[in-house]
Specification:
This protein is α+β, with helices and mostly antiparallel strands and about 100 residues long. The chain contains five helices and three strands.
Length: about 100
């Protein structure tokens, strides 16, 4: 029984640690993009190396899609590791922009 509990807590610690790491990484978004982009977007979550960004409008989502490779490169440089391989931009996802 103690071994089973230890295994459960170990997995829980791993999941909590991953969630905290992902929150820290999404918090980098305003440092990666310029102020104008930051005001009109919000990093929502990071799942399986995909960063999800809410945008103020479909125009912002489309514009940023064209800049995706450069943004991914800057994000990974800022993070100090290859943590993002894709970004999904979605308009009107609750961003007040």
């Amino acid at each position: 029984m103690p071994e089973q509990l230890l295994e459960i807590f170990s997995r829980l610690d791993e999941k909590v640690g991953r969630a905290i790491r992902n929150c820290r990484l999404t918090a980098l978004w305003p440092q990666v993009v310029d102020e104008r982009v930051s005001r009109n977007t919000e990093a929502v979550k990071l799942v399986n190396r995909t960063l999800y960004i809410a945008t103020a409008s479909p125009v912002w989502a489309q514009e940023l899609t064209f800049l995706k490779p450069a943004i991914i490169k800057r994000f990974n440089e800022r993070a100090g590791a290859e943590v993002v391989s894709d970004i999904k931009f979605k308009a009107g996802s609750g961003h007040g922009g």
